[in-house]
Specification:
The chain is an alpha/beta fold and 359 residues long. It is built from 16 helices and 12 strands. The protein has one domain: Alpha-Beta Complex (Spore Coat Polysaccharide Biosynthesis Protein SpsA, Chain A). It has a 7-stranded mixed beta sheet with strand order 3-2-1-4-9-6-10. Helix 6 packs parallel to helix 14. It starts with a helix and ends with a helix. The mean pLDDT is 94. The protein binds guanosine-5'-diphosphate and manganese (II) ion. GO terms for molecular function: alpha-1,2-mannosyltransferase activity.
Length: 359
């Protein structure tokens, strides 16, 4: 609680690259959105806010991916709201990288999703949602349009950026040796990942050499806020980085442990027989195969994706945040929530290194 109450403006490191500095805007990164043509209006909302709070000063390129061709209306709609000289890439995902793979038994999928829908699991029967989770887990970082980039900032439709971000995020990642950045930590619906943990442990037994001695193991197991999750998954608290916002070093995803892990998971079929999300998959991989000191909580970034937010505490006289978020407020539905969804505290307790705590 103490750490949350601190006034947070930006990381306390002396190598921040600010707008106008020689290295400003020269990081090797792109903002990435996987979207449908029908998402145009909502992704424009996100882009406008990100440009205003951050990217107008840094000029990073955008990359849009879709499982269908982008229409001219979509492409023009995006270009029209961005400066003329801004690099914007539009790409299509080949069907073999997007669709349900041949190895999946469709009857079994239908049967399992019938059950899940009865259990009120969201998106259970939405096949494209399963495709999306699999794509973000094991495919996107090998898309040809991303081959030249090292870092990706993932952007979704209909999100909010409440506060100015006055330093170069990609340069922060590289200059401070970070491979992953997040803003929110939440518990998952255990129904969607019943066998993800046991499958993961099977993989780890086959490849103990992939484990990182500095991994965030205790974080994965801390069920103090939510005991039921732990039982349903047979060992995983379900706490994960909420990947609708993420800054990723693609070298980590392209590394042998990550690639082998997601291929192993893919063969298990859980992206379809269950509804494994890319968020728990990414989080398990990071906690097991990466050093926790390389994972950064961007507590200074004011962010909202329905229904959760990260809202930093600013100095009283500061105009950094736009006044639409309440410092420390996490959920849009604070009083309606059945059990605590926020597991930020377990990350702070188990996995924030001394260096990160003071950053
Ligand atoms: P939620 O945040 O978990 O409710 O899921 P979203 O509906 O926001 O989907 C996550 C991301 O994937 C968003 O950027 C969506 O635009 C994108 N997405 C989801 N389904 C599809 C799809 O079928 N095709 C494409 N091209 N993008 C999709
Ligand atoms: Mn979303």
């Amino acid at each position: 609680d103490e750490i949350l109450a601190q006034e947070i403006t930006e990381p306390k490191v002396d190598n921040l690259v600010r707008s106008g500095d020689p290295l400003s805007g020269k990081g090797n990164g792109t903002i990435l959105s996987l979207v449908k043509n029908s998402d145009l209006e909502n992704i424009i909302g996100s882009i406008r806010q990100l440009e205003k709070q951050y990217n107008k000063n840094f000029g990073y390129p955008y990359t849009f991916l879709n499982d269908e061709e982008f229409t001219d209306e979509f492409k023009d709609g995006i270009r029209n709201i961005l400066p003329k000289d801004r690099i914007v890439n539009f790409g299509i995902i080949s069907p073999d990288k997007w669709n349900m793979p041949d190895g999946i038994d469709r009857e079994r999928y239908d049967k399992e999703m019938e059950k899940m829908e009865t259990g009120e699991v969201s998106y259970a029967k939405v096949e494209s949602y399963h495709n999306m989770c699999r794509f973000y887990s094991k495919e996107y970082y090998n898309h040809p349009l991303l081959s030249e980039y090292r870092y990706v900032w993932r952007l979704e439709p209909s999100v909010d950026f409440y506060c100015k971000i006055e330093y170069d995020i990609f340069q922060f990642m590289s200059m401070n040796d970070k491979i992953y950045g997040f803003v929110l930590n939440v518990y998952d619906d255990p129904e969607t990942i019943r066998t993800l943990w046991t499958s993961t442990m099977e993989f780890v037994k086959e490849h103990p050499d992939y484990l990182n001695v500095g991994g965030a193991f205790k974080w994965l197991k801390d069920n103090s806020q939510n005991p039921k999750c732990y039982e349903d998954t047979q060992g995983y608290s379900t706490c994960h980085f909420w990947t609708n916002f993420e800054i990723v070093d693609l070298e980590f995803l392209r590394s042998e442990p990550y690639e082998q892990y997601v291929q192993f998971l893919d063969k298990k079929g859980g992206f379809y027989y269950e509804r494994w999300g890319d968020a728990p998959v990414r989080s398990l991989a990071l906690a097991l195969f990466a050093d926790k000191s390389r994972i950064h909580w961007f507590r200074d970034i004011g962010y909202h994706h329905l229904p959760y937010a990260n809202c930093p505490t600013c100095p009283d006289d500061s105009d950094r945040c736009n006044g639409t978020c309440i410092p420390g407020k996490f959920s849009d539905f604070e009083d309606k929530i059945m059990y605590k969804q926020n597991c930020q505290a377990t990350w702070i307790k188990h996995s924030m290194t001394d260096e990160e705590l003071h950053m």
